[in-house]
Amino acid sequence: MMELKPLNLVPPNRPPPGLNFFPNLNPPQKTLTFHKFLVLFLTFIAYAAFHASRKPPSIVKSVLGPEIKAQNGTNGWAPFEGPSGPHRLGELDLAFLLAYSIGMYFAGHIGDNIDLRLFLTVGMVGSGILVIAFGLGYFLDVHWLLFFVIVQILCGLFQSIGWPCVVAVIGNWFGKAKRGLIMGVWNSNTSVGNIIGSLVASSVLSFGWGWSFLLPGIFILVVAAFVYMFLVVSPDHIGLELASKEIEMNVEGVALVSSETGETEEEGVVVEPETEGAIGFLQAWRLPGVAPYAFCLFFSKLVAYTFLYWLPFYLRHTVVAGVQLSHKSAGILSTVFDIGGVVGGVLAGVTSDIIEARGVTSIIFLLLSMPALLFYRIYGSVSMFTNIALMLVSGALVNGPYSLITTAVAADLGTQSDIKGNSRALATVSAIIDATGSVGAALGPLLAGYISTRGWNSVFVMLILSIFIASLLLIPIVKNEIKEKLSEGKWLWISMIKR
After folding, report:
1. Considering the domain 26-67+76-241 in this protein, what is its CATH number?
2. For the segment 193-247, what is each residue's pLDDT rounded down to a tens digit?
3. What is the pTM for the complete model shown?
4. How many alpha carbons fall within 13 Å on the CB side of residue 56?
5. Of 407, 415, 292, which is closest to residue 361 (Cα–Cα)?
6. Which of 90, 288, 327, 496 is the most exposed place for a label (fewest CB within 10 A)?
7. What sequence ranges are listed for the domain Major facilitator superfamily (MFS) profile (predicted)?
8. Which helix (H) or strand (E) holds 324?
9. CA distance 232 to 17
10. CATH number of the structural domain 284-494
């Protein structure tokens, strides 16, 4: 497999221009703690802005696609009108997500070799311009499918710059000691961004669907200006030093060094040297746990991204308590799913900490999400209260296991003697898992676009079946965790049940 070669570019070791305009922000006037919080805030709002700018396509689907004829005589926006409209909308999602998946590989490699602040700014500015360009299709009366496809492909490439950059910056500033708590809170940026995007896009939808793109596009451009002016990529750029040895992180925000080799120098523990060379692509697939986690993430992301891109459209075409929701109401109501995602992420993290088994926690959430989705489909239309309650529970159970799955992968692989201490090997494995999950994320919305024309029951069958397969793939890992806990004398209640 062809490997990317280093670019041999040295990122400039200089502070951002905003600190020159406001010298009081520099040390010693401002401490290390202040700058850590500033970095957390800027990277949080930056990636939230990325996600906010991704939401408009899902919010305007119900306007672009075939209209509900009982409401009015319009029939969508060409070329998305008519019976094949949902197919075309699904293809737009596929264009964006495939470009995003491919771009992640190159973005991570480039980000390792150039100034992360400038690279992140480029990604945000490019995303903002392209989101606005999509919205201009309304004002310029564009009905050419290829125009929207090209814009989505380019937007996917620019959006792929965001995650590797913000995670790399976080990795420069925060050590392992508080990484779990910090990442647990910080990772809610995706759900917060989705909520902001949904609310903004829905609030202006009545003025024309183009406005639903213009405002999120302007928002990310404004945030990009603050990132360019004030984001400090690394403490040494402003003459600060961290007390402990930092841990390299992969594109999912997971430490690339195991817990046994990532102790601080202050504790007097010798850091184990990295083994020579990176393992091969096929060899990485053969490592225990890689294939199950990779395909589990494939099916999990398939479900989550189907909701991300199609939930407002579904709500618009579903009668709740005998009432057909408006475009605006459907978009705002869809934010409940993302609120559930924030709650689920925290709940999954706390549960995992208590029982000390991420795989078990993940499979519990996945198994519970199947009846939750079934109940949501059956009883979600009974009343607005049941719809909100069941959507909140579904969002928590579907989105909760994400951080656990990715973190469990690093923890599991870090204990294997074959690659112990080899960050390049772990990076290869992480790339495999991320890429496999991204393919599922691209496939889910596409399938939903085609299957929804046959009825939404078929879509929910696909989602529940995907979660069931994801659960099956985790069974070997869960068995190993249970055996390990029993051998350590923990989970005695399981032994009592067996007796």
Report:
1. 1.20.1250.20
2. 999 999 999 999 989 999 999 999 999 999 999 999 999 988 888 877 765 444 4
3. 0.77
4. 31
5. 407
6. 496
7. 32-483
8. strand 323-324
9. 10
10. 1.20.1250.20
